[in-house]
Amino acid sequence: MSPAGFDDSNDFDLSNDFKALPELFDRAVALSGPEREAFLVTECASDAALLAELRRLLAADDAASGIAAWDRTALETEARAAASAPDPSIGERIGPYRIVEAIGSGGMGKVYRAVRADSQYEQSVAIKRIRRGFEDFAARFRTERQILANLEHPNIARLLDGGASADGMPYLVMEYIEGVAPQAYAETHQLSVASASAPQCISRISAW
Fold this sequence. Notes:
6 strands, Phosphorylase Kinase, domain 1, six-stranded antiparallel β-sheet, alpha+beta, 3 domains
């Protein structure tokens, strides 16, 4: 049995820490209750990130096994599982910033709200970083960071800083702007598919 959301055909290599993930999943999914929890704690005691990813996959598998899951798309099931799983990045210190909460995610990255934690001054920022297991995309991420550094437009969040975390993975720090996500805005205002398309939705939010 393969992990829910895990595709052996992906053309990127898992990091060394995550190569044991498929085997651990197959062993854990056969367990339940206290027995499964004891297994997770024992096998992943030295790797909090691996433990969090394994919990996420198991939660997605459990959700997919429920009758209600058949009424949801795979992406919705994945999103629900990810939202309920603890994020090891919360509270982590990156440079002078401390991560407070997750505010968005995509295929290979995740965006967090962070605050200045060096007592120099108060500031909230948005930090984007690559997910564990997507190390092969680091070069593309650095290219994206350079493109953002060259952009100056009143409707584009400014790049404030960038660097590499303790594990060598690049991150970028951007201006944090309070607002509402396009999907949430569309749902709140019950927009039709046509009116909820990207250009129209962004135009409406900007004028809100």
